[in-house]
Design goal:
Layout lengths: L1 H24 E3 L9 E6 L2 E8 L6 E3 H4 L5 E11 L5 E14 L2 E11 L8 E4 L8 E4 L4 E4 L2 H10 L1 E4 L1 E5 L3 E10 L3 E7 L8 E4 L17 E6 L7 E14 L6 E10 L6 E3 L7 E5 L4 E5 L1
Parallel strand pairs: 3-8, 4-7, 14-19, 15-18
Antiparallel strand pairs: 1-10, 2-3, 2-6, 4-8, 5-6, 6-7, 9-10, 9-20, 11-21, 12-13, 13-14, 13-17, 15-19, 16-17, 17-18, 20-21
């Protein structure tokens, strides 16, 4: 009887341990109709709502949220970034304390802030925060899972592997890219941007002709001007149309067809795309330079 009780107690402890581990490694998120991944995090004990954005480069807080932090240290140097449209942003850099996202905790984190309103959000958490930690965005369970070496190895056995090219900007910011075939014509290196929004596929306008898009055909192409929400003097021009096919160069089976595309003048990349269409579970392994997708 004593052995049975000990066994039952041992099993209960294992279950509780597993539950605790799951709670620590799973970060819940909200997924509104816009396709954005919204998470809660705390900085120096102050809780906020954030956009998890693999295309943001640098982690940025709103000034309103930043001003609530009891401790911050301004760094001597700054950082010049460029939005995808080419708009220049000169940012001051700050070190903040105790940045927590689910089970991930950074004793210090480098951030900047902008005096803007983000629709009720307190900032944007970039890929830089997760640069050493492989993770899975599970769109069905609406959680970000922090992967272990064992769980990552299991995913590599079943997932479709798309090589990624991380872009580290002097240790301050981090983005990631991968190669995709567009209309079976061009192989372009696209920014993988979880913050782009639902069904957003942007390409550099210099590829219009190569992809057979006639900007003078107003029945198929619409030109729009967009003013920056940060610098009101900056205006970008975009051609809206549809394309036939987009497929991962390394895994052609990962594809979408008949999609709406935006050709942006002055885009600093070949293109940018949201990543939710790739699969229900998207694993990002920056150290391993890989993205693994599963349905």
């Amino acid at each position: 009887m004593r052995s049975i009780l000990l066994l039952a107690f041992h099993c209960a402890c294992l279950c509780l341990a597993a539950f605790g581990q799951s709670a620590k490694t799973a970060i819940p998120f909200e997924l509104p109709g816009s396709g954005h991944i919204l998470v809660k995090a705390t900085v120096d004990g102050v809780e906020g709502n954030f956009l998890f954005d693999t295309g943001a480069g640098l982690t940025v807080l709103t000034k309103t949220f930043f001003d609530k932090l009891p401790h911050s240290r301004k760094e001597d140097g700054g950082f010049t970034a460029f939005r995808a449209t080419g708009e220049r942003l000169d940012a001051d850099l700050y070190t903040v304390r105790d940045f927590r996202l689910g089970g991930m905790q950074h004793a210090t984190e480098e951030v900047s802030y902008l005096d803007v309103k983000l629709g009720g959000l307190d900032g944007i958490i970039s890929l830089k925060f997760m640069e050493k930690q492989p993770f899975t965005i599970d769109l069905e369970k609406k959680e970000i899972r922090l992967e272990t070496p064992a769980s990552l190895a299991a995913i590599r056995k079943t997932g479709k592997l798309i090589p990624i090219q991380p872009e580290d900007y002097r240790g301050h910011a981090l983005d990631m890219f991968a190669y995709f075939r567009v209309n079976d014509t061009l192989t372009l290196q696209l920014s993988l941007d979880s913050g782009a929004g639902k069904d957003v596929f942007k390409l550099n306008a210099k590829y219009l002709q190569a992809l057979g898009v006639n900007v003078n055909d107003t029945t198929r192409v619409k030109k729009v001007a967009r003013r920056s929400e940060i610098n009101q003097d900056f205006v970008s021009h975009t051609y809206l149309t549809s394309l036939d096919k987009l497929a991962a160069a390394a895994v052609p089976a990962v594809q979408t067809t008949g999609f709406k595309a935006q050709f942006v003048e002055g885009l600093i990349y070949d293109g940018i795309m949201w990543i939710n269409w790739l699969g229900n579970r998207i694993t990002v392994d920056v150290p391993g330079r890989a993205m693994l997708v599963q349905n």
